[in-house]
Specification:
Layout lengths: L1 E8 L11 E7 L5 E5 L8 E4 L11 E5 L4 E5 L2 E2 L19 E3 L2 E3 L2 E3 L33 E2 L12 E6 L3 H6 L1 H13 L6 E6 L10 H16 L4 E3 L11 H6 L1 H4 L5 E4 L6 E7 L2 E7 L9 H10 L5 E4 L4 E6 L2 E6 L1 H11 L5 E6 L4 E8 L5 E8 L11 E7 L4 E7 L1 H7 L11 E2 L6 E4 L2 H4 L4
Parallel strand pairs: 12-13, 13-14, 17-18, 18-21, 21-23
Antiparallel strand pairs: 1-2, 1-8, 2-3, 3-4, 5-6, 6-7, 9-10, 11-26, 12-24, 15-16, 16-17, 19-20, 22-23, 24-25, 25-26, 25-27
Helix pairs in contact: 2-3
């Protein structure tokens, strides 16, 4: 839906994309604000995106160009997405003005706005914050802190790391994904990170070769540092050419001693890693090929039925909201995974997935009456495509507990240059982001 549109086409000023608008603020079908403009000093258009937004709310939108870059603010927060440099102003066609509440295509009105527009101000220079229509403080929907939190509370403890759905970071903010991977590599020893799991949707657009290349370049940091990691594909990673397998198929892992094999589809895989007092199986069950790989997954579990197992798949758990409360549910794939792979196999003590918006956790009991921890971890719909937040699980065998923390290496880097402001928290502290669960290791892992 078009909110504000500069009249005229790219063709009117000799630009590429002859029917493209000279500038438009629109609401996309993904519930984001999209600002597209043709700068005065470039041949092609430039785009800014906001985070996902909720309906039935007022939004205060500010777009500022200072002849160097364009930044998009929503409700007082700059939701930048890799803002390109050297962007000067907005190109114009002499004698043409602006449309309010509509976009254009090919010189004709298109996609009328459905909603309410209260006030619009257009200025010929970048305005400082006090001159905005509203200088409102951001509504804080995240709880967090930038105070240092200890990531390892005992010398015998160890961490498992989970990198949720990097798709928006790889697409729009690749420096954030790189920061996650670099931090993991740098702190592998200090924080005793025994395994890192990437939860799927490594790219946002499976047809975009640059996204595959960016993600692979970042992941290569862990390869070079010999950091143990496992991956599973997400719905954004599939295409007719099996590009995911070209970048992240069995060949990439074949030389790693913890990697133990792949399924007939080559999308599912498993590994075995030693951490603390135990050897852990990591079973990556591919969502698209789940039924095709089912017998192979069952075979892996049967072969390693005496080893504690973490099962990762892109699609298992989602959550409904009831006010501040979140209610977890099995997805269709999640029901199959529970009934076929988790409930009958006592060694599976944890499942982890992304895919669905938000975070939630729960404990269920399997057919033996033993507890299974289930986690949904996904921040892609939050600020800046996730702001570099990832999940750490600290296993404390001595205290019989697992501590879960959400940390952003990217925000940690920002804090080295300036005091971060909301929503730039190094640690998220909400009840679904930071919590502890009691866990009787010896009793739960007695798998005879």
């Amino acid at each position: 839906m078009g909110v504000l549109t500069r009249q005229g086409r790219g063709a009117d000023i000799g630009r590429k994309g002859e029917n493209e608008l000279l500038a438009t603020l629109s609401v996309s079908n993904c519930k984001e604000y999209q600002w597209v403009c043709h700068p005065m000093n470039r041949d092609t258009s430039m785009t800014n995106w906001s985070r996902y937004l909720k309906a039935d709310e007022w939004h205060h939108v500010v777009i500022i160009n200072d002849t160097e870059q364009t930044l998009l603010y929503v409700n007082g927060i700059c939701d930048y997405n890799s803002p390109a440099r050297d962007i000067a102003g907005i190109a114009e066609v002499e004698g043409r003005g602006w449309n309010i509440g509509a976009s254009e295509w090919g010189g004709r009105l298109d996609k009328l706005f459905s909603g309410a527009i209260r006030e619009i101000r257009i200025a010929g220079e970048p305005l400082v914050r006090v001159d905005w229509l509203i200088d409102s403080k951001p509504q804080q929907v995240l709880q967090g802190t930038n105070e240092r939190i200890v990531l390892l509370n005992g010398e015998d403890n160890y961490n498992f790391a989970f990198i949720p759905d990097p798709q928006k970071l790889v697409y729009l903010n690749p420096e954030m994904f790189t920061a996650q991977v670099e931090w993991t590599a740098q702190h592998h020893g200090k924080a005793r990170i025994a395994m890192t799991a990437v939860l799927g949707d490594i790219v946002d657009h499976s047809e975009a070769l640059d996204e595959w290349e960016r993600s692979s370049k970042a992941i290569d940091i862990m390869d070079q540092c010999r950091i143990p990691y496992m991956m599973t594909a997400g719905n954004h990673d599939y295409d007719a050419d099996d590009t995911y397998l070209r970048y992240y198929g069995p060949e990439r892992f074949a030389h790693k001693d913890y990697y133990k094999g792949c399924s007939p589809s080559r999308y599912s895989s498993y590994g075995v890693i030693e951490a603390g007092s135990y050897f852990y199986v990591w079973l990556m069950a591919d969502m698209k090929h789940l039924l095709h790989d089912m017998d192979w997954c069952k075979g892996v579990l049967h072969q390693h039925r005496h080893l504690p197992t973490i099962l990762v798949s892109h699609d298992i758990l989602y959550a409904d909201r009831d006010g501040e409360r979140r209610i977890p549910h099995n997805s269709e794939n999640g029901t199959i995974i529970w009934e076929e792979l988790v409930a009958p196999n006592n060694q599976v003590f944890m499942t982890v997935n992304g895919h669905y918006d938000g975070t939630v956790h729960r404990i269920r009991r399997n057919e033996c009456g033993k507890e299974v921890i289930q986690l949904l971890i996904n921040y892609q719909d939050s600020y800046r495509g996730g702001n570099g937040w990832m999940r750490l699980a600290e296993f404390d065998e001595r205290a019989n507990r697992i501590s879960f923390r959400t940390f952003s290496p990217w925000v940690e880097r920002l804090a080295e240059c300036a005091a971060p402001a909301y929503p730039d928290f190094q640690f998220l502290t909400g009840p679904y982001d930071c919590f502890q669960l009691p866990f009787q290791f010896q009793e739960r892992f007695n798998l005879e």
